[in-house]
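General statements about sequence and structure are easier to judge against a single worked case. For one protein, we set the task of working out the structure tokens from the amino acid sequence alone. This step matters because it turns folding into a mapping between discrete strings. The amino acid sequence and the backbone structure tokens for this protein are reproduced below.
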Amino acid sequence: MIIEVLKSKIHRAKVTQAELNYVGSITIDEDLIDAANIIPNEKVQIVNNNNGARFETYVIKGERGSGTVCLNGATARLAQVGDIVIIMSYAHMDMDEARNYKPLLVFPDTDNKLIK
């Protein structure tokens, strides 16, 4: 049996931009996606802690060290600049692998920088 489990999470990132007139997606600082083992074009689920919205989109690599978390296209309607979001990626695994898998958890600071 194959199940879907949490692969990684960027916990409590701050939305820095919302660009309605864009094709779609979420742009995330390359430092954050590297730390969370997320790759460009990977599907992610986003939860907005401020309004409860929960949605899916794909990742675009943002400028390294910029702290960028930008919702693009229709997703820009689901958050405002300053909202706190949780960005999650998932993986499919067999039951034995899933039982032992430990997701990567990234906790950025208030400027979306990695805490060292």
Remarks:
- The longest strand covers residues 2-14.
- The beta strands are 2-14, 17-19, 25-29, 43-48, 54-62, 69-72, 84-94, 104-106.
- The two ends are 38 Å apart (CA to CA).
- The chain has two helices and eight strands.
